[in-house]
Write a structure and sequence with these properties.
The protein has 1360 residues and is α+β, with helices and mostly antiparallel strands. Helix content is 37%, strand content 27%. The chain is extended, with a radius of gyration of 54 Å. Keywords: Cell projection, Cilium, Coiled coil, Repeat, TPR repeat, WD repeat.
Amino acid sequence: MAVYFDHRIEAPECSEVPSQVAWHSTLPVLAVASSSSTSGGNVDLYLQQGEFVESCHVNRPNQPTVLRWHPIKPVLALGWENGEVLLLTHPSGDQTVLPNTHNASITLLEWSSSGSRLVTGDQMGVLAVWKLDARGRLQGNHLVKHEYNKPLTCCIFRPAPPGDDVAKLARASVSGDESALDKFSWKGAPLKMGPQEGLMFYVSTTDGKVYSVDERGKTSALLSVEGSILKLFYHEKREALAVITETLMLSQYTLGPEGGAQELMKVKLSSKSGQNTDIVWTENGLLITATGEQVIRLWDLERDDNYVLSLDETLGFERGEIINCVSYCAGKEILAAGTSHGRIAMWRMVVQPGSNRNDTKGQWKLQTPTEIEGNVIQLRWGSSLNLLAANSSSTVLILCEHVMSAHFSQQVAAVQVTPSQLSIAQYNTGMHLTLQSDIHIKGVCVTKDSVTVWSGKQVTVYELAGTALRNTGSFPCDSHVVAVHDENLYTVEPNRVQVRTPQGTVKQLLTFSKTEGNPVLLSVCQAYLVVGTDTAHIKVFDLTRRDAKAHCNAKNLADQIANLGALRSVKCNASGNQVSILISQVNGRPDHKVYFYDLEMDTMSLSVTELSGRCPISHFWDESEPRLFVCETEPISSESLSVDISVVTLFCTQEHGLLLQDCYPKPAGLQALLALDVPFYYFSCKVNVGQHERSSAPVPHLPHMVSRRALRDFVGLENCEKATRDAMLNFSFYLTIGDMDEAFKSIKLIKSKAVWENMARMCVKTRRLDVAQVCLGNMGNARAARALKEAGPEPEAQVAMLAIQLGMLEDAEKLYKGCRRYDLLNKFYQSSGQWQKALETAENHDRIHLRTTYYNYARYLEAMGDKSLALTYYENSDTHRFEVPRMLQDDALSLEIYVNKMKDKNIYKWWAQYLESQSDMETALRFYEYAQDYLSLVRVHCYNGNIQKASEIANNTGDRAASYHLARQYEGHDNIKQAVHFYTRAQAYNNAIRLCKENGLDDQLMNLALLSNPEDMMEAACYYEEKGTHMDRAVVLYHKAGHVSKALELAFATQQFSALQLIAEDLNENSDPSLLARCSDFFIKHTQYEKAVELLVAAKKYSQALQLCLEQNLTITEELADSMAITDSKDLSEDARKDLLERIADCCMRQGNYHLATKKYTQAGNKLKAMRALLKSGDTEKIIFFASVCRQKELFIMAANYLQSLDWRQNPEILKNIIGFYTKGRALDLLGGFYEACAQVEIDEYQNYEKALNALTEAYKCLSKAKDRSSGQQEVRLADLQHKTTLIKRFLQARRLYAEEPGEAVRLCEALLEEPELDSAVRIGDAYGFLVEHHCQQGLSESGEPGGTAESAGRAHGPG
């Protein structure tokens, strides 16, 4: 059990109103800033219990604005209103003033993660970065200084990327961690060196901008938001920056490796306007806000979830209490909130067993509040001790969690309630005393005559003398543990236990060797003392004599228990032969087992089965019964302090080992187990809980802080004598080991019905129905035995029935709840008169019987005479329309009041009918109107002869039943017009049609028939046809009724062309082909060819439809073409279908629709015509695609021939396709011709003889491979190509030779000019150009010999 004790700070007299508080992250040192409008500002430091540190007092004429502790060293950074920044060192009080950099009020101070950098910022937007050494001392002037020209609001350092911490690895290696040692060895994985701290940070301004400053001090704008920035948070898992503005607009930005920011989400946080906002950010992405409301709002940014926490008035909070501030302790997972009424609310994170904290939203459990004085305006958790500082405007209090001391022995219990106060209970006398000590109590030990308390520095002994406590001795002692037996006190010091008198005199020393270690644990049971040492040794001493004597040698438990780190607790039993031990493992974690050491057998055993999946918290032996052991356990996975705590009782013997006797959850409201003293368990508890005992026997007044609960076997036998108690213990033991014979022998001499009844009650706990039947027989309770047999096949239901018969209603209730038989539980509540619980059970768990429960409760209330409340539950059961009139039938006035009050239409109608039966027509009409029963209104008005009023009601309301009734009235009075009108409003069209036919109302008949069903339409159409008038109406009605053929026949017979056109619009392929044909002929005659074609297609007369398109030159659309060529048509053979498709394609060709023609030719399988149609379209892309898909030789050649007509020289893709298509089409002769043409183009247009030569070479290769029918012609072409190739090669040789031997090149060119048919291969002009260029370079005149040669050559060959 733990509570929070507050320590008010010992503030000096000069201190004013505290304004800020700040804890060091690890040291228990609190900084408090106070300010005054007259004396300036102060900053003081305080220790754990509020002690003032005089050496660290700082006073300035200005106000302090910001406090920030160094993350490691005891150095506090102080920011002042005048721009001064001061470093204060604890405990020396050394003050270091930073060089004057700021001239405005300091708005931010922020340390890097290791404290090597300090960022300062002021109201004018000046930011400076300072460097400090490992001891927290300033190193020179500022490293970086930036001016942002706007007030700075927040600063946050970005954490360094993960890496190996060399210092931690070194420490782990020295301690023997092999994995850490391997990282320093060349054998292991390479050491991933990460930076010791992140030096990059982000800073925000009041104009909504965020800047980043990198490790080198370079700043850059990162992002911008609307409004002043209130908070900056860094979400490490997402690598995202969270920004909160003063308007509580939350934005998240992902941060890239190069410094960019991208908005991830943006949301408006709920808040109360005009209130101060306190915002807390946790490492797991939880955003907590307090905005001056009665709730705290939480946003889980990892899971995009949000919820609220509110105060609970049942725990002591008041309505309207406002939450001012919040603070979160990550070490304890506690959320604290300060309220306007001086209370500190705390929510503890509780994770359900078996759930995972990473993927399941935790639940917050509100604790009992801690009350302080004043209005709590600021809360701060801090230090490694998880201390809480609360600023209540007038002072600051430090709250620390303290584990309450408690002890029970020899019917005396003591429980600590404050740091220096105990609540003491004497169960033998029923006295309740309060002990106020002058020391801080760290422990307590009681006996029947004394109370001993100690603080770790001093021990004080008090004597219990009647109703008073007398101080019998007090002495200084550093022992942290004390045990008491009779008049002896046992304290510890290194390597020995001191036996003292109450005045502190040492009577005896119980020594331990160096190997055995130092005593750290003491426990006394009866006349035996067990001592545990820091080296895991235990030793038991016999205290029955004057001097303590060793009962056994010291036992080294490390030899018996693997992975033993230290002893947590040791206890011995009443005979001193069994010792129970709780240990901690080497890693410091509590072990999940209870170990038992048998001194006589020198054996070690442990509880595995009994505590499977659970961890022991505390353990005790019974003070008089050496076999009985009890311990408190909690689930291993439990992350809360008081969730699912169980009390486990075991029998421990040498013969049978460990046997589970009982296991039950700790009752609600109880704190911790204090002791086991048959027949009771003793618990410490909350105030007033101890007044509720699990016993039916009268007990004396019990103290408030201790509660006792009877053992399962002793319920009802709390005050029995020792013989009965021993018999019951033996019975329980034998029942546990399964020896029923010995169990009954143990209690066979007990003749009391009360004992057998208690035995039967125990059977409810053990669920032993066979034993229960024997007990009921000995009790002579035949009715209970019969009820047990008739309870049904379910064992839980039988046990619950047994509990009911024994008057154990609470147990029966728990049993029904445990087996989830909420239907039986509901009946149980009803039978026992617990109607509120019955209603709650039905509403929450047994909703199938909810209305039945309401009805039964209403009947109960009616029987009790509470008719007003019975009305409510009859209404809830939805039986009030019958039950309430029945209940109030003798009270007409109350019934009328109820009718007027309920305003229920059904009840109004019932009451109106009742009044009508009483001939009170006027009042009946009024209630019929309330009930909106228009039929009854019309009926009564007609009965009264007021048919005009009835007509108004029927017309205004449109009620069909009322209109029908009124129509019958008018028909009975031969008012046909009104009768038809109201039949129409009642949608009784057949009656209206009947009247129209009988009275010749042909005009109305048509409209009514159109509104009615097809049968009425047919009837009206036959009427018009038989009458021979209005044949157009008959046609329309036949058509609307779905008789199209009849409508067409009548339309043709009567020449109703307009109606025929309307009918034709509804014809489709499912219509009668003969009708379609007749309609198409009709449209052809009236030159409506498009409609005629559609009908012919619908009639599947595709040839006629196509012929009509050709004759009338109708454009064939793709939709029409598709409808004429349905692939699954059963009326056309495959050949006929292909022929039809080709005819459609031919028509499309004539109409210029080449793409559609291509499609139809393709569907007909005539790909050659399809290609021709596609060639006419000129769609190059589709031509290439179609040829590639079809893969036919002829199509490849056609496509290649078409592509030659394009500008293939400028489009390499076309050139590639030409070559590929000729190759795939195996037209090598055509490909050769294409290459030859390519060569000629290169010569004529580009004078590129090299490419021309390559093209002619390719042409020669293709012609050589071609299989020409005329071999002689092919040889001539090959020879011609060879000749051209030779001439071009000679010309190219002359051009290449010119650079080295110009004369020889000129001679070769002149010789080339003498060749016959040179111009077919080499342009003569190019040869002359070559010579002219040569002579121009030689500088010879036109009259020289070469010029003459050129002229003569020109005359011989003509102009080039």
